[in-house]
Request: fold
Amino acid sequence: MLPNEGAVRCEWCTTPAVAGATSCAACGGPVRLLEPWVLECGWCGRSNRRDETPSCLGCAGPLPTIPGGHPGPRPPEAPRELPPGYPLRVLFTKNVFAIVGAAFTIPFCWTLVFPLAGIPLWVHGHRRARRWLDALERGFATGGEIVSIRQDRTQSINRRHPWRIEFEYETPGGRLKGHVEAWDPAHAQRVPGEHVWVVYAPGDPAVHALWPPVH
Ligand SMILES: [Zn+2]
Ligand SMILES: [Zn+2]
Reply:
């Protein structure tokens, strides 16, 4: 097959479709001609051919849906098992507030001023990460809809800017606004009106994440 040629597959699980079928025999997902799509895994960052696999070849976590397509299957029932290594990255190695807080606190613990600045930052970073993991692991799943996608020029790493994906989601208390940041430029292809799955923390519906997460 030519590299640019798509194949008729299930959008959810990528199983090749039976001729003439409108839904997937394996999972019931929508079937269509899937063009080649490279998406970064929201759990570990690895690039994957999303039209060929629904889960990451590196960490086995579910990959983001194809931009412009259907939302994936409903998130699994809570408590959800997250890919190995992900909680530790969220809590420690990718936690900017916790890293900066620890950097101010540990080497300067003999002073008073730096820990005074560092510890609250550290605690803030830890709580924020814990709430994010809580939404993913134990959160209620609900339908959401993207309202806008734009580049966030207030942030940059190596002259790259993240994409800010804004969405609204339903909760028993009403429709709430949410957003996530994504560095993978593939998300620029998402469109307002696209449906997504959102998980929100049981104790605080304002604490939310996309399911599966984006990178
Ligand atoms: Zn399927
Ligand atoms: Zn992964």
Q: What stands out?
A: Residues 86-135 form one domain.
